[in-house]
Amino acid sequence: MVTVKDKRKKILVIRFSAMGDVAMTVPVVFSLAKQYPEVEFTILSRKFFEPFYAPNPQIRFIGIDFKSEEYKGFLGIFRLFKRLRAEKFDMVADLHHVLRTIILSWLFKLSGTPVRHLNKGRKARKRLTRKHHKKLRLQPSVTQRYAKVFARLGYPVHFDFKSIFDWYKLKPDEKGSVTGIKDVKWLGVAPFAKHKGKIYPVDKMEEVVAYFAERPDVKVFLFGAGKEEKAILERWEAKYIDAISMVGKLDLSGELDVINRLDVMLAMDSANMHLASIVDTPVVSVWGATHPIAGFYGWHQSSENAIQITDLPCRPCSIYGNKDCYRGDYACFAGITSQMIIDKLRQFLE
């Protein structure tokens, strides 16, 4: 006997990394799941990112560890395909479109499964970042690019997503075992990014942290990862009474809970901007070599809260902030004072 559930269309959604890019799939797939209850959406990603989707019972999640021997190399991709083929997906949305997902998509196509992939707009992005004769045209946001993939599969999306905490029934740290009870304003500070071109000078960022951590009506939560970032944030934690480093203290679900309860997050063009965006927390973002015009701005964030030097002809010089400053002085950050950041944050904390 064929049940109603068996008749549901099954769409596989692939996006492996990076954290911010995976977070930007959330508004799209949550909206789709609500709009098309007759469709089963399955996310294929790194296991670490499961908390993004765990609260939504309408979405399945398959977590993969590519460091394991099982999924290494071409044979590993083929093993993964065999596992996925058994699920009998009707369609595949490749929201990554890198070598690993291209091979996986090719295998699906050979088996007769329709596949659509992400158009990254590389040519337009090159025109944005070239040294001379830039074409400063607003690019579609990443969420819009993701949405186009589903539209080509026959599922246009109407965005109505606000926060993943609309689905959570119990917050991971609601008793405040790490953070303490919220009795003052909460400021999150995420001062790091993967590449130098997206990191505001640490000494100037400390001036911002010091200003708010020394106020009795504000508690500052510091976000980062890795040994170097941990060392810096723990030094600030020891130096300022009302500053708390969150590095290594909570898992991703717990960090999302804390970010959800912030009054504002201060972040670079980085993953933390996107984590705050998917829990509906306002973000004051600081931009250097990169630029919101490239389409990587946080979901539903106000453009008024992006701090940047807009009259530098060299900006943006990079999409990801991974190129050396050809001027050698990072004027894009040098022109942003700590007081400019403080003044913007005070709009949320007073």
Q: How far apart are the first and last residues' alpha carbons, in Å?
A: 62 Å
The CATH class name of the largest domain reads Alpha Beta
The number of E-state strands comes to 11
State the order of secondary-structure elements, H for helix, E for strand: EHHEEHEHEHHEHEHEHEHEEHH
Q: Assign a percent range to the helix content.
A: 25-40%
CATH topology of the largest domain: Rossmann fold
Strand adjacency order, main sheet = 8-7-6-9-10-11
- Reported CATH architecture of the largest domain: 3-Layer(aba) Sandwich
Chain oligomer state: single chain
Helix count equals 12
Query: Could you say how many structural domains there are in total?
Result: 2
CATH H-level superfamily title of the largest domain? Glycogen Phosphorylase B
- Average per-residue pLDDT, rounded, comes to 94
* Uncertain stretches: 1-5
Molecular shape: globular
The main sheet comes to: 6 strands, parallel
